Amino acid sequence: MSTRRPAVLVAAALLALTAACGAGASGGPGAADSATDSGTDQTLTVFAAASLAEPMDDLLAMFAEDHPEVSIQPAVYDGSSTLVTQLSEGAHADVLATANTASMDDLVAAFPDQDYQPALFATNTLVIAVPKGNPSGITSLADLNEATFVTCAPEVPCGAAATELFDLAGFEGEPVSMEQNVTAAAERVASGEVDAALVYATDVASRAEELEPVVPDAAAQVVNSYPIVALHGSGLGQELVDLVLSEAGMHVLAGYGFGPPEAG
């Protein structure tokens, strides 16, 4: 009896320790679930047309104030067709905003199982961007025949709009280059590389210290509508979309010269 009692006590102690560990283990998944549910590792990634860079940055700052637990990644700004290609090839984003409906239609077609329902949230029109003071005296599309100018590539929304505008005006001038997004086109003028560029009115407004607009005839007939959609069921993405479509979102966009979405 004297030799077995210590062994029994040790066994009991080991059993108690095992039970205690088991209790801790059973609480572990609950704690892990709580950590997961807390959303501390939530991230939001936005792909948006280059012309949306300034208002979208403001909107993301507003979103961050109301969602301190969310890690907001630097937004990816580029030509709409480029963004759609990247997403179709496997890039991840929670939200896509394009500068025309055709690019968004391509995204919807690439993911037929998602039943995406994009919403229109803004409009924009083209202008001829010229340097401050308009040193070449450009007043119309016809004047571009005596100047160097650039457009966006035809697959990019601003390029498609320029092609439509040229057709309406019967203009047959040739750009010296076709840029992959509207920001690059505007930069060519601001840097002094060319005399003019076909860009959105908002791009000139955002660089008023460097550029000024010349509104060509028929510009009002070529209106780009901007759609936005949350991708792959992203709840955070939908919350951002709701902000963009809200009165506060519309106010931010109007402040950068965007028009309201067209009815119907």
Features:
nine-stranded mixed sheet; D-Maltodextrin-Binding Protein, domain 2; disordered N terminus; 2 domains; two-stranded parallel ribbon; alpha/beta; 264 residues; single chain
Task: Give a quick rundown of the structure.
This protein has helices at residues 4-37, 53-66, 80-88, 101-110, 157-169, 182-190, 201-205, 235-245, 247-255, and strands at 43-44, 46-49, 71-72, 76-78, 95-97, 119-131, 149-152, 177-179, 196-200, 211-214, 223-230. The chain has 264 residues and is α/β, with parallel strands linked by helices. It folds into 2 domains: 43-122 and 225-255, D-Maltodextrin-Binding Protein, domain 2 (3-Layer(aba) Sandwich), CATH 3.40.190; 124-221, Periplasmic binding protein-like II (D-Maltodextrin-Binding Protein, domain 2), CATH 3.40.190.10.
Structural class: alpha/beta
The unreliable regions are: 1-40
Give the number of helices: 9
Order of helices and strands: HEEHEEHEHEEHEHEHEEHH
The overall number of domains is 2
List how many beta strands DSSP finds: 11
CATH topology of the largest domain: D-Maltodextrin-Binding Protein, domain 2
CATH class of the largest domain: Alpha Beta
The proportion of residues in beta strands is 15-25%
How far is the N terminus from the C terminus?
A: 93 Å
CATH architectural type of the largest domain: 3-Layer(aba) Sandwich
Q: What value does the average pLDDT take? A: 87
Shape: globular
CATH-defined superfamily of the largest domain: Periplasmic binding protein-like II
Radius of gyration: 28 Å
